[in-house]
Specification:
Length: 106
């Protein structure tokens, strides 16, 4: 599984979450300004923390070079971290939004 261990799941997670919203849940989350502000806030905190954890040449968290793309931006952060971050945050907000809709309907 060389080169696929972290990159492939990260790449697949984004369209999977988007498809869940567009084709199944249809919460309208992507049309909400609050969603995009939430992502901006999360990434604003993620960048300095993740940058500190992964900064080269002496990272606290190391990635096996065979399991990720090697692309790092900004502050030596692997781009896969942003893909997974988007997917995890979005999936969580979709679940909360769907749950809230169910509660209001009852």
């Amino acid at each position: 599984m060389t080169g696929l261990g972290y990159t492939l799941p990260a790449l697949l997670s984004v369209p999977a979450v988007v498809l869940v919203e567009v084709c199944w849940l249809r919460t309208g989350l992507f049309r909400r300004r609050a969603y995009w502000v939430t992502l901006a806030i999360v990434f604003a905190f993620m960048i300095p923390v993740d940058g500190w954890l992964t900064s080269l040449p002496d990272p606290i968290v190391e990635y096996h070079p065979e399991h990720f793309s090697g692309l790092r931006f900004p502050l030596d952060i692997p781009v896969e971290d942003f893909l997974f971050g988007f997917s995890l945050i979005t999936a969580t907000l979709l679940a909360w939004t769907r749950q809230e809709r169910g509660r209001v309907a009852r």
